[in-house]
Specification:
This protein is mainly alpha-helical and 110 residues long. Helices cover 53% and strands 9% of the residues. Helix 4 runs antiparallel to helix 5. The relative contact order is 0.16.
């Protein structure tokens, strides 16, 4: 890969908040997460994934199942950590706690 190829790939990637930063008050997000939990988890690594800018804009503030469908239409990413979330059946505080621990463990071993 040339430096230009790498630069082109990474300029098309953006950070997606799976639990949205501003969920619709009527959404499942507000039923699954309390206000305090949303504040706590929204910007944590466990809630962030890398997607193409196009996929990120398609995912918007949808519920988790709809977001997963948007992520896998076409090909959202080749990044393993992002692809792992497709195996999750739900997105809850306990899932995020587990993911956060896995991420921190990974970095502490590196």
């Amino acid at each position: 890969e040339s430096e230009q190829d790498v630069e082109r790939i990474y300029t098309t990637i953006s950070v997606e908040h799976v639990l949205p930063q501003t969920p619709n008050p009527e959404s499942n997000w507000t039923k699954i997460f309390s206000d305090g939990e949303r504040l706590f988890y929204t910007n944590k690594l466990c809630n962030l994934v890398l997607l193409s800018k196009n996929k990120n804009s398609q995912a918007r503030n949808f519920d988790f199942e709809t977001k997963k469908k948007k992520y896998i239409e076409g090909k959202a990413t080749n990044l393993v950590r992002t692809l792992k979330l497709l195996s999750e059946k739900e997105w809850t505080p306990s899932i995020l706690d587990r993911r956060q621990k896995e991420i921190l463990d990974f970095f502490s071993k590196s």
